[in-house]
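Weekly puzzle thread! Below is a chain. First person to post its structure in token form gets bragging rights.
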Amino acid sequence: MTDPAKTYDVAILGWWYGKNYGSILTYYGLNRAVESLGRSVLMVHEPLGYNGYRVHWPTDIVSMDFARRVGYEHTDQEHYSALPRLNDVARTFVVGSDQLWNPLIGRVNDDLFLDFVGPKNERVAYGTSFGNRGTEKFKVPFVAKHSGHLQQFKAISVREEYAIDTARDVFGVKASLVVDPVFLLPQDHYSDLADKATVSPEGDYLAVFFLDPSAEKKAVAQAIADKLGFDKIVIIPNPDEGREKVTALFADEPRAEVLAEDAPENFLRAYRDAGYVVTDSFHGSAFSAIFEKPFSSIYNAKRGADRFKNLLASLGFGDQRRVLETDTTATIAENPYVTRDIDFTKAREYIESGRASSLEWLKAALDPGTPGSAAIRPFQRFTLTNPEFAASSNAWRISRKATGTRLKVARGGSVLGNLVWTDLPEVLTQGSAYQLTLDWTPRTDARTVNVHVRNPETGSFRVVGRVNLPEGAPEARQDTVTFQVPDPGFSQVMLGAVHFSGRRAGAEIRSIALQEIPAGVAAQARRKAGKTPAQGFAKQAMALALADQERQVRSYETAHKASKVSGARARMIFHAHAIEKGLSRSNFRPGFGKIAVPGLAKEMNAWLSSGYSTDDPYVQSSAAVMKTYFDRHDALRTDVSAFRQLFSGAAQDLIDTTRHHEGGVLPAAQIREIRLETDDHRGFLDVVYGRRSVREFTDEPVSDEAVSRAVQIAMQSPSVCNRQAARVHQFEDPQVIKSVLDIQGGFNGYEMPPRLLLVTADLDAFLFAPERNQPFVDGGLFMMSLLLGLTESGLGSCSLNTAMGSAKESAIRKIIDIPENEVFISFVAVGHYDQQVLVPRSKRTHVQDVLVRHTAG
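Winning reply:
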């Protein structure tokens, strides 16, 4: 508790009192780091009075017990109106870490932007987060209020690299990147704290720390324990009501021992002494690295998967430490990264260098003698109360009163050219965006009033917003318009008499407030205001198109990296197929291939020099194409040795020894590959006309062989330049299928299918910008063939569309871990079915409605 007569160098605001180890140790790290710089620290408890998300915290919870043990000095919980008194208690106020600036979290309020801090005190943010990457969540009122607060900070740091852009582009402030506060303390500091544990697991054990435990995660932990030979599993409960959950979940696991007491010291001890760690916690992953414990991390989508990706990438692991909630015993056994042998060299370098640079940043930010300002350029903001107006003619009658400035239009004065304006304290900045708020009572029969800005030097003016007014008697109201300043020299707000008609036409202006805001936020507000259904459709369509375009560009850039196998395959088969087409021409042209042959040589040489497998079907097919090419020219006694010399020695050897049937040409009537037989020898028309969209399935198991036969049939579909971009992902876990289809939304009311397939198209196979639609063309051809293949194999199926927004798609990708370079074509529900089950008739239209004949002449 605090001594009312004592003063402090630093007061820290944040969620240090939360009932989870991540929050507790985050703020412990920040507290001790500040103290290590020779500063006294006061921890500010959560203020009350904002909304229902702010509650009284008990004094006997794990966080408060820990605060007493480590000797925090902290305030009591008081109403937020008492916060200004802290200006006399502390010199510098620090906010962070956590998502304290995420507007989607109900507990985020003005205090976390340090609105109460006076001009003589300093404001600092350490590692504070805006939440995820998106900026749509930042609405104009939120930005208008808090950009002013943030611009008064001395220094701002963030923990995610993309948050630097958010700070600059949305709030007009500069931010630095620092490490999470838990990394500010060395390993031995946490080890000393762990020595104070009241519970100390013994022996060689696997530690499990799940914030959101589930049967699937339990199975993953058990599979890892089995693979690594652990006879003991120590379960660390989440102190926020997690003990009962894990106790019940692991009740049937004889190796499990639930940590007997909740305390940060016990958490650290269990981590420090573990042989291996499995966790779905961001900070659980962080402490694995701090203690250099081999670990596996389940990215927790509920709490932000991006955080895990950023952390593990920074630590030098990439996705190596990741396991999936859907992993099985078999996939865990095959995962080479589920091993006790982990190299922490890069992680150690990141933590040590990050700690050093972040402490230097913090030292400078807290130094009263170090100048600083987070504001890139202070935003303009001013309020005119009872503003003084001038007019262009006597059509306006102006009177100023204590309650506001009265503007009245004389009879007959409601015409174009009769203007009234008030001066602003400063000239508006060209190109900048503003929010203008009118506190007024308009009197007019018109349903809209235009608001203008005016240049007093030239007399020119521009409409910057339109206020929509209801019918009926005038009422006091506040109206807001957002705009961007088009030209220099505007320093007046103007109204036109033409918009004020009827009895007692005019307005009473109590105040005019202008707040500069980021241009992007202003544009967002303008798009939303008055948006028609068509505009809403256009906005969503544009956003989806841009997202698709960005994904296509990312895939193109990635596929052209030397290390990307899929891109190399696509380029090889592109050139090889061009040569195949030349070989198939009836009017064969000897010596053809001046572009395709050098292109194929380049790709094959690069493939072999990189050490990739010579048994790969793409390189085998390419070699066979060139063997056919050289054999054909030898038979014609045409010299193409210059082309042969383009291939490396290794490539020439592969060409000379490959088998002809892998590539080249063949008569149209000849079978390309051995056909898979099915038990049902139906004719083609029987299959086509017999296909139905089946949504109710029997309990008969679906064999992998039947699905494989259907996929093999689908692989006979054509694709651009034979690049074969289609992929099929198969799922049989009932919980995974349900989770995916609940989001997809097209299977409501039906029992879950035994199998679920997802057809995708690999963007790495497409090489040119005009092929932007080709993934969906090739994918659609493949999917139709797959549906027919399933019918031929005796299975029922139903295609389920993937026409969805980015949010749904992202949620599905997090569940089933589909690579970003694969675009969704369609889900397919699969299973055996009763031949008498009812299905929609789905009557087809007439041929003449589909077939359009364009006749000659």
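Puzzle host: Confirmed. Bonus trivia for everyone else. The chain has five domains: 8-184, 206-301+309-342, 381-528, 565-662, 684-831.
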